[in-house]
Amino acid sequence: MNPYTGIITVFLIAIVLALFMIGIPKLISPKLEEPEKYEPYESGEIPIGEAWSRYPVRYYLLVITFLIFEIEALFIFPWAIKVKELSWFGLFEIFLFVFILLLGWIWAIKKGALKWE
Amino acid sequence: MNVILFSIIYLIVALTIVMYITWFERKFAARIQNRVGPYYVGRPHGWLQPLADVVKLMLKEDIVPKKADKTIFNIAPPLVFIGALLTFCVLPVAKGLYISDLAVGIIYFFAVSSLMIFGVFLAGWASNSKYALLSAFRAGAQVVSYEIPLILSALVPVVLAGSLRTSEIVRAQDIPFALYPVFGWVAFIIFLIAGLAEENKVPFDVPEAESELVAAYNVEYSGMKFALFYASEYAHILALAVLASILFLGGYRGFYPHVGPEWVWQVIWLFIKSFFMLCLFLLIRWSFVRIRIDRLLLFSWRILFPISLINLFLAAIWKIFF
């Protein structure tokens, strides 16, 4: 039995269900055109400017740091299921790998990449 | 054919439970705040309230803001919903009762649940509303930050069981992994904290932040599209509660008399454990205050991340010794 049969089934059911849930209200919900309704919500004020403009976003450094450690976690996975077999040698290897990345983590913190001032 | 039928039943049950979680949370919150909560729709204690909500949301007008990016605006809610439902595939409810027993179960769970954040970010971006956009930024940063402690703490049961298969992890738990000294406790607590943060719940609800960002990335959504976000949020809570009980509390295992079919008892045990996890989530949610976004992110990067890493190595050393 292919284990992905169930997953594809759930995927298709989810799509159908989502379309169904969006489609039904299209048939039965009211439609009253009013220009104010289609403005973005800004707590009742008249919207000022565009939302798609430039922001001082600090999150991008965070996301780069995240990428590094997410991939690290992905490399830890294969080791994690074979800890017993690989024994001390495997532990040492993975420790070395994590240690090098941890240096990067310490550097990022020292550099203030995760700081908000 | 069997699998298809089973997954349909599984999803129907799961979505019904999700509907009733919303009701249960409202009652729970009401009790904590010394209120009664929903009461009039369906007589003892408003048990028909979730159905009434669905009907109400169906009758709402579907508004798409004029300035929004319409394609992405419409794609985002189904994307989140699909991501939320797909996570249920690898969660067994009893011995042999699962939609799919993937060999990479845990990786699959995290891979699919990070589909949701794409939907959330696209929703915030496509709305072309400042509140929604800021909320999406925050949601992205927060989920991304807490994903790593979450994965690293979920790796502790994987190391101890020596498999990524959820059924294998359950089989390995003669003693629940949450009871293993020190590293078991720490992993469980970190999983709880990071799980709460993944769900954008108080004390980690900066993306939602009613008092500053009005609601969340879904400010501009109305009607059933809003309901899709809402449903997938609660579906994800349910999935995480079940995953936590599978990883740390022994899943469907428990003591039961050998009367009647075995799987019924196992489903009941899993239900009790997941319900306990859910109550824990709700209790934390309704008793703490919100943390500021920068402190929130620093907490994950400076404290949770190193602790969970050290914890993982402790578990590995223990595994090598015994």
- Work out the strand percent of chain B: under 5%
Q: What is the number of helical segments of chain B per DSSP (H or I, 4+ residues)?
A: 12
Largest sheet of chain A: none
How many strands in all of chain A? 0
Q: What sort of overall outline of chain B do the alpha carbons produce when their principal axes are compared?
A: globular
Report how far apart the termini of chain A are: 56 Å
Query: In what range is the share of β-strand residues of chain A?
Result: under 5%
Q: Number of folding domains of chain B?
A: 1
Order of helices and strands of chain A: HHH
Molecular shape of chain A:
flat
Flag low-confidence runs of chain B: none
Q: Average pLDDT across residues of chain B?
A: 85
SSE order and pairing:
The complex is a heterodimer of chains A (117) and B (322).
Chain A: H1 4-28, H2 59-80, H3 83-111
Chain B: H1 2-32, H2 49-58, H3 70-86, H4 105-113, H5 115-126, H6 130-161, H7 166-171, H8 183-198, H9 210-213, H10 223-248, H11 262-285, H12 293-321
Helix pairs in contact in B: 1-10, 2-10, 3-5, 3-10, 5-6, 6-8, 6-12, 8-10, 8-12, 10-11
Identify the notable features of this structure and list them briefly:
heterodimer, A: 117 residues, mainly alpha, Methane Monooxygenase Hydroxylase, Chain G, domain 1, flat, B: 322 residues, 12 helices, 67% helix, globular
Give your account of this protein's structure.
The complex is a heterodimer of chains A (117) and B (322). Helix content of chain A is 65%, strand content 0%. Chain A has three helices and no strands. The N and C termini of chain A lie far apart (56 Å). Chain A has a domain at 57-111: NADH:ubiquinone/plastoquinone oxidoreductase, chain 3 (Methane Monooxygenase Hydroxylase, Chain G, domain 1, Up-down Bundle). Chain A is an all-alpha fold. With 322 residues, chain B is mainly alpha-helical. Chain B has one domain (63-321). Chain B has twelve helices and no strands. In chain B, helix 5 packs antiparallel against helix 6. The longest helix of chain B has 32 residues, at 130-161. The model of chain B has no long low-confidence stretch (mean pLDDT 85). The interface between A and B is large, with 66 and 78 residues.
